Every structure is written in C-alpha cells, then in structure tokens.
Here is the input.
Amino acid sequence: MINAIINGIPVEVEKGTTILEAARQVNMKIPSLCLHKDLDPTGSCGICVVRIKNSPKMLRACCTAIEEKMDIITHDPDIVEIRKTVLELILSNHPNDCLSCGRNQNCELQSFAAEFGIKEEYFDKVIPPIEIDDSNKTIVLEPEKCIKCGRCVQVCQNLQNVWALSFADRGIKTRIAPAADFSMAESPCVSCGQCSAHCPVGAIYEYDETKVVWDALQDESKYCVVQIAPAVRVAIGEYFGMESGEIATKKLYTLLRRIGFEAVFDTNFAADLTIVEEGTEFIKRFTSDNSVLPLITSCCPAWVDFMEKYHHDMIPNFSTCKSPHEMLGALSKTYYAEKINIDPSKIFMVSIMPCTAKKFEIHRSKDMYASGQQDVDISLTTRELTRMIKQAGIDFENLPETEADLLLGEYSGAGTIFGATGGVMEAALRSVNYLVTGKCLENIELSQVRGLDGVKEAEIKVGEHNVRVAVAHGLGNVEYVINKIRDAREKNLEVPYHFVEVMACPGGCIGGGGQPRNVDNEVRKLRSAGLYKDDQKSKTRCSHENPYIQQLYKEFLGEPCGHKSHELLHLHYHPREKYAEYRGTENLT
Here is the structure.
C-alpha cells in the first residue's frame, strides 16, 4: 500500500494506482479527455495535470502512479488556468458547429468548455479542411472534429485488433485516418463501431438513416414493420432518465406503434429460432465422426466480417445460421406475409439494433435476399431510435406498456440473454441438452459462461457427453481461442472445444457500437443483469419451448435445418480482402 496526501487529505491506495484514481477516493474529480476505463492511459490531452507541493513540476495524473509520501495538489488557480488554456488550444483546432453536431449536449469537450467557462476565443482557428468519410455506410469519420485523444486508435488496434484506424502526418497536421490513408470502405474496418462508442466528441459516429425510416412511415404504399434486439431494451432508457439495465421492452412496443409501425416484432423470437437451428446443427456435427468441430456461432456481423478477412480458414467451422434479425426479416416477408395475406414487396422491415455492423450485414450477400427482396430494409442503432423518439415528442419514460405482435414477437428467456456475452452459448446448451436427452438441464443458469472475462472456457455436461465450450468477446480476445484451435489441428490433437461463441464488442451486444455512449464494465454489468432478470421472469426459459416457434415449424418451416430452413435462414461465407471496395447492393458476392 502507498500512503500519500492529496489536497491535504491523507490517502492510502494500492501500489500502481494512478494519481487520478487516488484522487477519486477523496472525492476530487480531475478532468481528462483522453482517458477511458476500457483503455490504457496515455496522457494525450494534457488537461489532467497536477503538481507536487513545493515543486514546479507538473505531472499528468491519468498515467502517473502515486508514490509514497507524495503531497499532491490537484486544483489551484495556476492548475485551473493551465487546464483552461489547454482546452482553448484544443478548441482552436475544432469547428464551432455544436448546434449541427450529433454529439451536441452529449460531448465531453463541450461539457469541459462549459465547466471552465470558456466563452471567448483567444487563439486563431487552425482547422485544415478534411473531407468527411462515409464510404462504408456504417461508420462516418469526420476528421475535422478529431481532438487527437487517441481513444479510437487504441480501441481499434489494441482492444479489437482490427487496425483500421491510425494517426496520419505529424505536428499540427496530425489527423485521424483509416489504415494506409485509404477510405473507410477500403480499410480493414469490420464496422463494429467501438471507435464511435469511445470517441469523446463528434468525430466518429453511426451512419444516420432515420430520414429513410421517417419517409417510409409516411409512404402509404409501404407496410412498415419493426423488430427490437435484446440489448436495446436494457440500454435505451439511459437517454430518458432510467437506470442502466432497466427493462423497457413493453414501452418500446408502445412507442414503435405510436411512431407509425403497423406491426411490432421482437428479435428475441428469432433468437429462439436461431437456437433451434444452431442447436440442431451442433448436435449433427457433435454426433458425427467426420464433422468439422468446433462449431463457431455466427450471430455477430462484425465477427463474421473479421473472420472472412483475417481467419477465413475457419469458414468450415462457422455455423451457417443467419443472425436473428436477418431470420426475422426473411420470415416477415414470407411466413408473416402469407398469414396476413399481404404482398411481401410492400413490407418494409426496420431492425432496431445495438450494432453498427448490422447496417453492413443487411446487404452483405445474396443470402440476405432470401425472401425475394432485401429481407431487412434498414437497420437503425439504439442511438438513431433515440433521436426519432425525441423528434416525435414522445414522453418515453411515462409510456404505457403493450405487447408485441405474438406471431413473431413471443420469446423465451433464452432469447433475451442473447444480448450478453455468453448468452448465445447458454441459450444453445439449454436446448441442446433437451434435444439430446429429452430433458431440461437441472440448472439452466450456466454461470460458467457468464461474466466479463475476455475468454471463458468451460466443460458442460450434456447427457453422457462433456461439451467443451469457449466464449470470447471483444475481437482482441479471439486470437487466443482461434490459435488454440489451429495449434490442435497442426499437431493432429483432439480439438480443444466443441462449441465457440464470439461477440465483437466488449460485453457482447449490450456494449454494442450503436448503444448509448459512456460505457464501462459497470454499465455493461447492469445491462447484462437486466437481460438475466428478463430471462428469470419469462414464462418459458428454453427456446425450443416457445409455442410460436413450434407453430412456425409445424405450419411453415417443417423441420429444423430442413430444406426450407436452409433456403431462408442459412447463409454462405467467402474469404474477403482486408482492403476492398465498398460492397454495396450493386456488388453482391
């Protein structure tokens, strides 16, 4: 333990604690623009400076470990003036377009400028004109607004191991840019959106398609339907005064009808469907002598893109199941269209997702046109839906609760936990056990695959079999799992796992790139807890028990992994170049 003094207050902390962390223990807030709890401190912004008593030396509190008997001053007139000057210098290189910026009133730079009372400009503006890059139609890069904090670079390179972003040029010309100074579409970007989720300002944000949805809702020739992903219901309330993890499912159903959607579905229903299909696929592989194992889940489009670019030798291991929202999109324009006797071409399907990569997924290949047209027409992020709610003037927090359209809206507890890392694995094993043994697991809550450890490994008893599983979240953690599989193959050893789940974003979809910002592990835990609470209170907790899933197979699909299921609910994979032109609908593979 280290004993020191901060602003005259004794403090005892563990060795290695930074000055900034120690200051929090005595209720002192040291400002920082570059620091984020997910990332290593860099001291890039320089506004966290503090000084040692009786010394002119300034230290950056975010990356300086506190030492024995340090006597630290975090705030005095000189320090405050230095911080204010640093902010003024940053603002001299930043546009004054707050009113038209998507981060207005939710911008860390704007907040600090207000806190420090900056009302005048003392430095000349130096803003080199750099074009906005929206070439991949998922993530928009606006380099003029970049404050060079380095968060996005750290996330992309160190946390996600994608290396799509880096700094270009030097000195005052330093700017954020895609790798090799290509466009975002040409870069290795997998559209996970973690760069935008960690950016403190409006330099990186989701490609906005709310106007397209508003126009569709006003078009009388369109029959607009919508679905909401599991993770959206435990995060969107943060924008409206609700606690992180508070479940807002039935308020969302009401809201979406008031906005103008004809039918409201739930992606959780399709998560149940995915489990039945993927569970059946796993059992066929697991019980066959010549099948490729492990089976790797395919629900996350950023992970799928990452695999096709960096690990396409794993294509034979990938489940051929589409992600849940794509399955529901296909069913809305086939099964549902038949049920209500409507022309499928009139149906306009909107997905509300925690994810920016879904914007790419909906037109990634011809498989996404299984219904005869694009199965999902638009994918909006949680943040985009929030803007629509505010534009519509709806008092979200006080909305009454209603139900989804049950035909494609009823879900089990297993369907809702899809939104948390380990949730797909847990949901799958609940049903796999039943499909193998005819019985439910004695304890269906599998704590072995829950939590925020980057890689979780476990052995789960399924009947007489021991199923070895791995769960990885955050693309930077995937290498460990993939290399373990490769090493076993190269040495002709038994595979280390039978079943693997990967989610690109830390925490899974609850920490998705399109979710409310300012996320750390505490927020992720609260959101996950909300999903597990939703699971616990569900009438059914296993996907195969969902009566509307049973009805779907009886009336329409036939059997799991059958001919019709493969036509509508499964897909194919192709190796992709790390640097390739934007793959839009005009260039389908």
Summary: The chain has a mean pLDDT of 94.
